[in-house]
Amino acid sequence: MSAEGEHTSLAQGATFRKSQGVDKFIFSCYHKWGCRMKKFIVNLITGFKDIIYPKICFICREKLDKSCVDELVCLKCWVAIKKNTPPFCTRCGRSLDSKSLTENVCCACLKRPVHFDRAFVPCVYAGPIKDLIHEFKYNNKDYLATTLSRLMSDFIREYDVPVNFLDLIVPVPLHPARLREREFNQAELLARLIASLYKIMVSADNLIRRRYTKTQTELESQDRLVNVKDSFAVRTPELFKGKNILLVDDVMTTGATSSEAALALKNAGANIVFDLTIAN
Q1: C-alpha closest to that of 280 among 73, 118, 109, 120
Q2: Could you tell me if 59 and 72 are in contact, meaning their C-beta atoms sit under 8 angstroms apart?
Q3: Which helix (H) or strand (E) holds 273?
Q4: Taking the CA atoms of the chain, what radius of gyration do you get in angstroms?
Q5: Other CB atoms within 10 Å distance of the CB of residue 142
Q6: What CA–CA distance (Å, rounded) separates 37 from 192?
Q7: Which of 13, 258, 278 has its CA nearest to residue 153?
Q8: Please, which residues have CB within 8 angstroms of residue 30's CB and are 6 or more apart in sequence?
C-alpha cells in the first residue's frame, strides 16, 4: 500500500472511531435523559392521580401519608391493631395471663387438647383487624391478603418462628361448594404469600374438605368440635409422610378447625404440624 493510501486508511479509521464515540455519547445521553423523562412523566401522572383519587386508609378512610408502613392502612390504624404478646400459650398462641404462667398453656387449652404441635397467632380478633379480615373473607377483597400476610411475616421475624425447617405450607381447604360461593380460598392466598417469602413449597390440593359444614361463627364451642369432626381427608398420604408442615388459616377461635385439619395431616404421617393464623 502507498503512503498516501495508508494515510487515507488511517484517516478513515480515525473518523470511524470518532463516529462511534459520538454515537455512544448520543446513546448515553438518550438513555440517561430518556430514563429521567420517563421517571418524570410517571411521577407527574402519579401526582395527578393522587390529587384526583387520593389514597385513603381502608379502615378509617383518612388520607394515607408517607408515615404509613402499609399501602392500605394508615399508621394510626396499624398501631391500633391489637397484638398477641409473649408469653404465649404453647397450644393456641394467645397471650398468657398470670394464672397460666406455670403451665405455659392457657386455661382454655388445658380443657381442650389439640392435634397440632403449636399455634402462632399475631393478632387479637378485635378492632381494625376484625374489619380487615371480614372484608377480606366475605366481601371479595382478596387484595387485602398482602396487608394481612405482612402481619404474619412480621410476627415470624420478630419471634423467630422456626420456618426454616419446614417442608411444606398447607392452607386449610374450603369445601368446593364454599369455594364457589367465595370464589377464592383466603387461606391459600395467605399461604402462597408466606411461602414466597421463605421459599417453601405450598401444597394446596392434597388436604381436602370432604364434607360441607356449617360456618363455625354460627356455633357454640362444643358444637364447633362436632361440626368439623372427620371433615378433612388426605388424597395422597405419601406426600405428607415425615414432613414438617405449617398449616395456614385466617382466624382461630376454639382451634377446632385447625386441630381437625392437623389430625388428618398427622394420620397421613406428617411429623410436625404448626398452625399459623392471623388472629384469635
Answers
A1: 120
A2: no
A3: strand 272-279
A4: 28
A5: 15
A6: 37
A7: 278
A8: none
| Alpha-carbon span 250 to 172, nearest angstrom | 9
Tell me what pLDDT residue 108 has: 81
What one-character DSSP code corresponds to residue 73?
A: S
Of 259, 264, 262, nearest in space to 272 by CA: 262
C-alpha cell at 280: 384469635
Contact 194, 159 (CB under 8 A): no
Report the C-alpha gap between 269 and 241 in whole angstroms: 4
Identify the segments of the chain with pLDDT beneath 50: 3, 5-18, 22, 26, 46-50
Strand partners, 95: 88
CB 280 within 8 A of CB 93: yes
Comparing CA positions, the residue from 124, 199, 116 lying closest to residue 163 is 199
C-alpha cell at 16: 470511524
For residue 117, give the DSSP letter.
Answer: S
First-to-final CA distance of the chain: 90
Predicted structure pTM score: 0.78
Note the helical H segments in 159-239. 176-182, 186-198, 221-228
pLDDT given at position 7: 45
- The amino acid at 31: H
Give the C-alpha distances (Å, rounded to integers) separating 161 from 124, 166, 246, 263: 18, 11, 11, 21
What is the maximum alpha-carbon separation in the chain? 106
Q: Give me the amino acid identity at 270.
A: A
